Inverse folding.
């Protein structure tokens, strides 16, 4: 596609002013040419011209004797004028509307009325439903046209019509080109960039090109992105620091407790220390975000899911697989295993039976982990995807988690350009669905889930 030359840097207001000026110049120059072209090439008769000529003939007839009138009429007919003489009483039969009048012509007449003095009976005169133009010859006689050329319009319409039409076409055309190039396309680019933006790469994602307003908006968004990145980096550094610093005293504590004489408190203390250690490990792993760098591979997703199910079955959970035996797809196998394991882990905590289903939609691969547990109330379905958020009632004693599992799953789905949906099941339960698009996902570097 050939690229149009880009606008010089200008505000939207300046561009609009230029467009209006260009349109005006075009309308003035091209409009005049169109007007004479319509008149000449299409030879469209105009009503005022016709009335003028008829009036001239009437004046000539007024001074002529009855015999001369017949000669003049003969000459006029020979010259192509379909006119006739009629008694003045004919005007009594004149009407101002006709059932057969073309509504377009009626509208044109109404929109562009002639400026000149009207002929006998007015501009809109009909006799026996046929449009006529009449002129008074003397007190007893009139002359009138018997048939009018088709189409017949007012000179006002012929003069201004092409200008109006041109103004409409030019302005509509220029404004739509302007709207697309100066407003819609840049905003669309910003929307696309915002959708796939990775807060962690320092790259400028919002293109700083276009009108002054769009450049300002893109700059502001890029600045905001940099500030968010700084805040997130600081938060991550702080959490990592706390995690590491806590581990050393925790290890010291554990060693001291282990040297204590055996008693019931000792067991409880060791269990608590192990639990804190586990939580720290989990948090640090989450912050390390290993799966973000895993490369894509062509994998048999069916066999990955079957393996996960058998591992849970081996631990005594009712987790079964339902789907094809083989289904190859490009994905990050370790991350995917982690995502589905997190989902199964959640499901076996609250449900009796769990089914991992694999199916193919036209443009996506769907992995659903269906359980018959209590499900997640509608109000929490978005919040549970946030890190460290848990629905209160689901705390399960020693197996209580940190609330990271689902946010990791959502990150992994996003990393594959897919998504995680949490849907209710009937009569109760949760269906956690990972949809992975069949098209190749973005590379590990451009990773929406990176922390
Ligand atoms: N299958 C499910 N049925 C009902 N509630 C669920 C299910 N899966 C998740 N939840 C709810 O969503 C919350 C968040 O789940 P998530 O996996 O993120 O954290 P977690 O399981 O509590 O801890 P972690 O996964 O870090 O060990 C859970 O605390 C639980 O309340
Ligand atoms: Mg979990």
């Amino acid at each position: 596609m050939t690229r149009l030359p880009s606008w010089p840097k200008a505000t939207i207001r300046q561009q609009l002013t230029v467009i209006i000026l260009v349109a005006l110049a075009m309308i003035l120059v091209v409009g005049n040419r169109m007007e004479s072209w319509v008149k000449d090439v299409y030879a469209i008769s105009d009503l005022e011209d016709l009335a003028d000529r008829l009036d001239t003939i009437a004046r000539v007839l007024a001074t002529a004797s009855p015999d001369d009138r017949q000669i003049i009429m003969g000459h006029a007919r020979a010259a192509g004028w379909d006119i006739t003489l009629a008694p003045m009483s004919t005007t009594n039969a004149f009407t101002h509307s006709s059932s057969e009048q073309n509504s377009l012509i009626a509208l044109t007449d109404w929109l562009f009325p002639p400026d000149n003095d009207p002929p006998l009976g007015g501009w809109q005169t009909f006799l026996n439903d046929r449009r006529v133009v009449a002129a008074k010859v003397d007190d007893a006689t009139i002359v009138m046209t018997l048939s009018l050329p088709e189409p017949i319009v007012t000179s006002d319409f012929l003069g201004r019509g092409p200008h109006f039409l041109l103004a409409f076409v030019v302005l509509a055309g220029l404004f739509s080109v302007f709207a697309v190039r100066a407003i819609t396309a840049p905003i669309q680019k910003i929307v696309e960039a915002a959708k796939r933006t990775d807060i962690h790469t320092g790259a400028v994602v919002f293109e700083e090109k276009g009108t002054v307003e769009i450049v300002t908006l893109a700059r502001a968004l890029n600045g905001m992105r940099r500030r968010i990145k700084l805040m997130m980096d600081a938060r991550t550094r702080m959490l990592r620091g706390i995690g590491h610093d806590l581990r050393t005293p925790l290890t010291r504590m554990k060693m001291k407790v282990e040297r204590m004489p055996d008693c019931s408190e000792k067991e409880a203390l060791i269990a608590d220390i192990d639990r804190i250690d586990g939580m720290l490990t989990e948090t640090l792993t989450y912050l390390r975000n290993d799966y973000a760098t895993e490369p894509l591979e062509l994998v048999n997703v069916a066999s990955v899911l079957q393996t996960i199910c058998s591992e849970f079955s081996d631990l005594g959970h009712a987790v079964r697989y339902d789907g094809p035996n083989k289904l190859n797809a490009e994905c990050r196998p370790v991350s995917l295993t982690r995502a589905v394991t997190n989902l199964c882990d959640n499901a076996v905590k609250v449900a009796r039976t769990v089914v991992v289903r694999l199916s193919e939609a036209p443009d996506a691969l769907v992995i659903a982990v269906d359980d018959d547990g209590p499900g997640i109330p509608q109000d929490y379905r978005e919040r549970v995807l946030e890190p460290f958020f848990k629905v209160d009632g689901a705390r399960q004693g020693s197996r209580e988690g940190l609330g990271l599992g689902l946010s990791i799953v959502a990150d992994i789905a996003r990393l594959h350009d897919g998504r995680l949906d949490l849907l209710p099941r009937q009569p109760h339960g949760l269906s956690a669905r990972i949809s992975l698009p069949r098209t190749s996902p973005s590379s590990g570097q451009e990773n929406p889930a990176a922390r």
